[in-house]
Amino acid sequence: MGSIAVIGSLNMDIVNRVERAPLPGETIQAVSTVYVPGGKGANQAVAAARAGARVEMIGAVGQDAFGEELLTNLSTSGVGTEGVLVEPGSATGIAFITVDALGENSIILSAGANGKLTPGKIAPNGRFALLPDWLILQNEIPYPTVAYALTYFAARGTYVIYNPAPACQLPEEDYRKISMLILNETEAAILTGSEVVSAEEISRAASILVDRGCREVIITLGARGLFYRGWEDQELFLEPFKVKVTDTTAAGDTFVGAYAAALAENMPIRDALRFASAAAALAVTQKGAQTSIPERVEIDRFLKR
């Protein structure tokens, strides 16, 4: 099995569960409040590790109790943490998450140490003496750092999986450095500037992104499943697994990490997509970010059922 590196964010999630989201200017009571290790980068690293991959995390935390807890949780999940910097005088990143009775969430991010992960802090300096076979990137760290990683690793033949969330417009030249672009309908609409609702619109959006230079594109569609487009116009829709939704917080991150783990095992594309979809389906049945990410044995058991 190949190795995976994740460059991205580490957050402490402060999760408020409510009956419904508050209206503007309204104060409501939370049903409960919990603190859960999160951050898109860390979530994806944990998902890949629990799915059976060998994973290293590269990021930054503050010199505080939250940072210590996040590092401990990564190690416990089997993720290497030598690449995680502890920023003196900085706070660890925080995500303020509201989850309603239907399991839908809204999130406010406070970057903290994630915002200080500049290109110079991930520059090789011996750190990448052995290049990972697979790299996962997202947008909860400064984009210049993402762009640096895209350029550095793409030039060295690493398969780069990029999850552009939160979504932002990319320089045209960066698309050509992406091996696999994984994004949802909202993010696809932002990147392409077009509606992404109908099957035809989804296919067209994926074609636009491939034409810009991405080798492959996956558009996740929530309860409608996913769409894959690859080289030579290969495309497929995959139906979702039917489960009872409790909390969607880390579903996308679980999909990304599990998909990378499946590719690292050389699973065929359809099998890898099904494996990652099963992991994401299991994640939405549980509460929290990393607390909801399933272990490999759970994914295998679910697929057998």
TrEMBL record:
Substrate binds at N11, M12, D13, G39, K40, G41, A42, N43, E140, D253. Activated by a monovalent cation that binds near, but not in, the active site. The most likely occupant of the site in vivo is potassium. Ion binding induces a conformational change that may alter substrate affinity. One of its GO terms (molecular function) is metal ion binding. It is found in: Cytoplasm. Its EC number is 2.7.1.15. It comes from the Bacteria. It is an enzyme of class 2 (transferase). The gene is rbsK. Its cofactor is Mg(2+). This is Ribokinase. It catalyses: D-ribose + ATP = D-ribose 5-phosphate + ADP + H(+). GO terms for cellular component: cytosol. Pfam families: PfkB. HAMAP family: Ribokinase. One of its GO terms (biological process) is D-ribose catabolic process. Catalyzes the phosphorylation of ribose at O-5 in a reaction requiring ATP and magnesium. The resulting D-ribose-5-phosphate can then be used either for sythesis of nucleotides, histidine, and tryptophan, or as a component of the pentose phosphate pathway. Belongs to the carbohydrate kinase PfkB family. Ribokinase subfamily. Pathway: Carbohydrate metabolism; D-ribose degradation; D-ribose 5-phosphate from beta-D-ribopyranose: step 2/2. The keyword Membrane does not apply. ATP binds at N184, T220, L221, G222, A223, R224, G225, G252, D253. Keywords: ATP-binding, Carbohydrate metabolism, Cytoplasm, Kinase, Magnesium, Metal-binding, Nucleotide-binding, Potassium, Transferase. Residues 2-295 form the Carbohydrate kinase PfkB domain. InterPro entries: Carboh/pur_kinase_PfkB_CS (IPR002173), PfkB_dom (IPR011611), Ribo/fructo_kinase (IPR002139), Ribokinase (IPR011877), Ribokinase-like (IPR029056). The active site is at D253. Homodimer. K(+) binds at D247, T249, A283, Q286, G288, S292. Coiled coil: none annotated.
